[in-house]
Write a structure and sequence with these properties.
The complex is a heterodimer of chains A (246) and B (518).
Chain A lengths: L2 E6 L8 H9 L18 E5 L2 E5 L8 H5 L5 E3 L5 E3 L9 H5 L6 E2 L8 E2 L16 H5 L5 E5 H14 L19 E4 L18 H9 L2 H27 L6
Parallel strand pairs in A: 1-9
Antiparallel strand pairs in A: 1-8, 2-3, 4-5, 6-7
Chain B lengths: L9 H23 L1 H4 L10 H13 L2 H11 L6 H25 L8 H4 L6 H27 L3 H31 L17 H28 L5 H29 L2 H4 L4 H22 L1 H5 L1 H31 L7 H24 L20 H29 L25 E2 L9 E4 L13 H4 L5 H6 L1 H5 L4 H4 L19 E2 L3
Classes of the chains: A alpha+beta (246), B mainly alpha (518).
The structure holds iron/sulfur cluster (SF4) (2 copies).
């Protein structure tokens, strides 16, 4: 199963149940503000242009963060969650740079900080086939859990049955190569602070295209340099002792 | 030679102040975290420790491999005199990069994970390996200077034999590393400003590092000659400057052509600060030194060479800072100016580099012996008027760059869209799906069972779960239904609102909640 979350912004009443449930299950401090993502708020509720916007990690199909991490601290599980292993992390923050959605956050206040972000309740729920705390808590069905294809079909069905209510756009269907968290909305996503210029190619592929050339560069480069040295050297030696064959 | 305690000259005091500030900053960072010591944030996670110390430190070391290849592979022996100074520069550059990296990393004690936990899809992984391996190679390449100094003939011989493989490894690693720093930014096509983002970034980083690394040879040789009469023949330096000019030309052609292809020029002249910064970078840091170095008369003069080298270095610094900071600012949507602690650490690192270089130049056979011209001038940068001029110039440039960044960030601050919480969308109350009624378990002395209904507790016109769920009641247990919630819920919790003010007082009316069993 490819787990996914569909958040329908037209149905969200902004009650913050998802954000609170997230804090509860992850033992995050509940006093900190919920309106933006931080190391201590993994599921945020932002009110912008009259819309309540639930923010969380998109759990990309091909996560830029996981490909960027030098030590594999971030990874995509077969179930679809992008999880984090703090014991591996070296704290380079390349994941923060790489993520096109600006999701991973850092514990700036700690001497020994960790990266923090939504992990789809992987250990506590998803692994056992259960839904994450946020979708379980939502009282309006604005954010729901399901199988990715099924949720895409659901979103398409909602859009086509009431086109006057929706933008004809499922955010996350193609963005950054597709994500496990999908959104539908009545207001264009660009007006809601969703990145508007995302490419549809997989982000990891952008660097992989170059990285996979390294073995070639190393072998041909070494051969080339060694050959060059040999030729140059031979010519010099021949000049010095022309009668000797080398 | 008599050992003299150095006079507390102006430079010495400056050095002491810088290092003191640097050490304080490092201690502070490890006690209070990166957030307290730096101006980094979730929006701007990489600052000058990456943009300056690492990107530029590595680039300046690029002279090392180019010169080694020239001397040993192409067998151009006349360049031998510049071999050691460049290798030393490169080695010091890398050591200092590592120092800066360890301060910047969140968990520096985990840095060895790069060796055991492979993610070969990560550019950072490649960068890590290149740093480790190339630093080792540079160290080995510089070792012969020690052997020579201490007359260890056996070792000298041994190293002579492995020199060629070492040099080849160095060239390959350095090529990979220079370009990989550019590759780091390939994954941010939508964050890095289009003036700088290009699929060719790795190539651009490599070529510009080459020019910068060679300019560093001229720069150092000039300062060393000033400081203690050890330097490199002018003729060689002039030849290097010609090479730099060609490298810069190749760079400019590729880069500008690439920008035309991507249609990036429209951003240059749109009046944005990015455009201005790009023009400063390209005109002052690339086109000007190229033209200077193509001019034979300028190549003849020491001052001309030095000035051209400084401009080349300026172009490199500008380019890296533009990629790491100017180009990332707009998408980040926040201002970033380094804190004084970030600046202090950076300056300490630079000062340490200069200091060690000076020590090595003085006590090890770094510069060729025969170049020694007469008097040994004592302390470091008592370098005569033009030396001071040069330092002043550099300081000026640095200030200019920093001031410029301040300006750029002030200008690029994006217009924040109004983010005032507005009335929640009008959503029909019937769309709310409340949890099932929660039936509390009765205790012995309870006058009747309590059954909690969400319907009577939620204002359906503006539902707000956090009134009660922010800590008072578990939202997850409540959603799951009765049983789990019944533990630990008592008068205290319900009484937060049932206090006679927000709702009726529980002490006054038991049967408001406790339904008698009949
Ligand atoms: S949204 Fe960002 S943090 Fe989440 S999986 Fe994608 S790249 Fe990683
Ligand atoms: S900060 Fe940690 S999780 Fe992020 S890329 Fe670096 S090592 Fe990986």
């Amino acid at each position: 199963m490819k787990a996914a979350i569909l958040t329908d912004l037209t149905k969200c009443v902004g009650c913050e149940a998802c954000a609170l449930a997230c804090k509860e299950i992850n033992d995050l401090p509940r006093d900190s503000a919920n309106h933006m993502l931080t190391a201590y708020t993994w599921s945020a509720m932002e009110h912008r242009n009259g819309v309540n916007i639930r923010r969380q990690c998109m759990h990309c199909e091909e996560p830029a963060c996981a490909s960027a991490c030098p030590v594999g601290a971030l990874s995509k599980t077969p179930e679809g969650a992008v999880v984090y292993d703090g014991s591996k992390c070296i704290g380079c923050r390349y994941c923060m740079i790489a993520c096109p959605f600006g999701i991973p956050k850092y514990q700036w206040d700690k001497p020994i900080p960790l990266i923090q972000k939504c992990i789809f309740c992987y250990e506590k729920a998803l692994k056992a086939g259960e839904q994450p705390a946020c979708t379980a808590a939502c009282p309006t069905g604005a954010t729901i859990f399901g199988e990715r294809q099924a949720l895409i079909a659901e979103a398409q069905q909602r859009i086509s049955s009431t086109p006057e209510k929706y933008q004809p756009h499922i955010f996350g269907l193609k963005e950054a190569g597709g994500t496990s968290v999908l959104y539908t909305s009545a207001v264009p996503f660009a007006e809601l602070g969703f990145p508007a210029n995302l490419i549809e190619e997989s982000y990891p592929n952008l660097t992989w295209k170059v990285l996979n050339k390294i073995p070639g560069i190393v072998t041909t480069g070494t051969a080339f340099l060694a050959g060059l040295w040999w030729i140059v050297n031979r010519r010099i030696k021949l000049q010095e002792k022309p009668d000797e064959t080398l | 030679m008599k050992l003299k305690l150095p006079k507390p000259s102006f430079w010495l005091i400056t050095l002491a102040v810088i290092w003191a500030a640097g050490i304080i900053s490092v201690v502070y960072r490890f006690y209070n975290g990166l957030g307290a010591a730096t101006n980094l944030s979730d929006q701007f996670p990489w600052g000058i420790w990456i943009g300056f110390d690492i990107l530029i430190g590595v680039a300046l070391a690029a002279g090392g491999f180019a010169v080694c290849a020239t001397i040993y592979i192409f067998n151009l022996k006349e360049y031998r005199p510049i071999g050691r100074p460049t290798v030393l520069t490169a080695f010091l550059g890398y050591v200092l990069v590592i120092v800066a990296l360890l301060v910047d990393l969140g968990k520096p004690y985990n840095v060895w994970h790069v060796i055991t936990m492979w993610n070969h899809h990560s550019v950072m992984f490649e960068v890590g390996w290149c740093v480790m391996l190339y630093t080792t190679v540079l160290f080995l390449e510089f070792l012969p200077a020690f052997f020579e100094r201490f007359r260890m003939v056996f070792w000298q011989d041994l190293f002579h034999r492995i020199l060629i493989p070492l040099v080849i490894a160095g060239v390959i690693l350095s090529t990979l590393h220079q370009s990989s720093l550019g590759s780091l930014y390939l994954i941010v096509p939508t964050k890095l400003h289009p003036i700088w983002y290009s699929g060719m970034l790795p190539v651009f980083f490599f070529i510009s590092a080459l020019a910068g690394g060679l300019a560093m040879v001229i720069f150092e040789s000039y300062l060393s000659a000033r400081a203690f009469g050890k330097g490199i023949e002018h003729r060689l330096l002039a030849q290097i400057s010609r090479v730099i000019a060609v490298v810069l030309m190749i760079y400019l052609v590729l880069r500008l052509q690439n920008m035309v292809e991507r249609g990036a020029f429209k951003h240059v002249f749109d009046g944005s600060s990015e455009g201005i910064f790009f023009l400063i970078e390209i005109i002052l840091g690339y086109i000007t030194p190229m033209m200077l170095f193509f001019n034979a008369r300028i190549r003849e003069s020491k001052a001309g060479l030095f000035f051209g080298a400084v401009l080349t270095l300026f172009g490199l610094v500008m380019n890296r800072l533009n990629v790491a900071i100017t180009g990332m600012a707009r998408s980040a949507g926040v201002e970033y100016l380094p804190s004084w602690m970030e600046v202090a650490v950076t300056l300490s690192v630079i000062a340490a580099g200069l200091f060690i270089f000076r020590l090595a130049a003085k006590y090890l056979p770094v510069f060729p012996r025969e170049e020694k011209t007469g008097v040994h001038q004592p302390p470091l940068i008592e370098a005569g008027r033009s030396g001071k001029l040069a330092m002043g110039l550099l300081a000026g440039l640095l200030i200019l760059v920093l001031a410029g960044f301040g300006y750029s960030l002030a200008v690029t601050r994006p217009n924040q869209s109004a983010d005032a919480p507005q009335a929640a969308q009008a959503i029909a109350a019937e769309s709310l799906e409340f949890p099932a009624p929660i039936e509390f378990v009765q205790s012995e002395e309870s006058p009747g069972q309590v059954i909690f209904n969400h319907e009577s507790h939620v204002d359906t016109s503006a539902p707000n779960c956090k009134n009660c769920h922010a800590g008072l009641f578990s939202i997850r247990a409540s959603k799951a239904g009765a049983a789990a919630q019944t533990r630990a819920v008592g008068h205290d919790q319900c009484g937060t609102c049932h206090n006679g003010e927000k709702a009726f007082n529980y002490e006054e009316s038991c049967d408001g909640c406790h339904m008698s069993s009949e």
